[in-house]
Design a protein that fits this description.
The protein is α/β, with parallel strands linked by helices. It contains eight helices and six strands; from the N terminus they run ααββαααββαβαβα. Strands 3-2-5-6 form a four-stranded parallel sheet. A two-stranded antiparallel ribbon has the order 1-4. α7 links the parallel β5 and β6.
């Protein structure tokens, strides 16, 4: 269930003209038989784990994964049409092959966080449960078509989410990966929050400064300096 403060914010945005137009377009596409990820029930999954005041770290990506589990899942006796996206940025459902971006995130973690062991899965729910808001700038996508829901209005919605965190949260870390995410940083108070800009971890850009950027240890060091418990980035194997 979406946390109480987030519910209020989301309900307020859903009354706005831009959101009504956004939702009408998505509803129209679904009615036409276009497959949209994540499933409707998971679109706001990121807001189910920690309320606004409890967010410690915001990890901001671009848009959801647009593929399905595929042949790798079949080998495990699972359906091959499980959506990769389930409402948490960079995370995939258990049983789904770990995507290249998350593979690179894991590679960085092995050099950045002592004791991190690369898990066999890509489910990052354990981070969300500790106060990591795993958010994309756009919250839906058509199957097989990256960026297909850019410019529909999600960017306005996520601007509002970032604005609320910036204003009401006492202090958190913003990890902004890629140009789309970094645009959000312009309106974040860096005297109150820590902003960590970096290239997107996709194979196209990970070697342009993502590797070696140490965002996870930097985030924890800052949290500890603020008197806040750090994130346990390790995941069950």
């Amino acid at each position: 269930m979406i946390k109480a403060h987030w519910q209020q914010i989301i309900k307020q945005e859903q009354l706005q003209d831009y959101y009504c137009q956004l939702q009408a377009e998505i509803t129209h596409q679904r009615a036409q038989g276009i497959t949209i990820f994540p499933e409707e029930k998971d679109v706001f999954c990121a807001f189910e784990f920690s309320d606004l005041a409890d967010v410690k770290v915001v990890v901001l990506g671009q848009d959801p994964y647009h593929g399905v589990s595929g042949k790798a899942a079949l080998k495990q006796g699972m359906p091959d049409d499980i959506p990769q996206a389930h409402g948490l940025a960079f995370s995939v459902q258990s049983g789904v092959k770990v995507p290249p971006s998350l593979v690179n995130i894991y590679k960085e973690l092995t050099t950045d966080v002592d004791g991190f062991v690369t898990p066999k899965h890509g489910n990052l729910t354990a981070w969300a449960e500790q106060g990591v808001l795993l958010l994309n700038t756009v919250l839906t996508v058509q199957q097989g078509m990256a960026h297909s829901h850019a410019k529909l209005g999600w960017e306005i919605f996520t601007d509002k989410i970032i604005e609320q965190i910036n204003r009401h949260n006492k202090g958190c870390v913003f990890i902004l990966w890629g140009a789309h995410a970094q645009k959000k940083g312009r309106n974040i108070d860096n005297a109150k929050h820590l902003i960590l800009n970096g290239p997107h971890p996709s194979p196209l850009s990970a070697y342009r400064g993502f590797f070696g950027s140490q965002p996870f240890s930097k985030a924890n060091n800052w949290l500890v300096a603020q008197g806040v418990a750090p994130i346990d980035w390790c995941l069950n194997a």
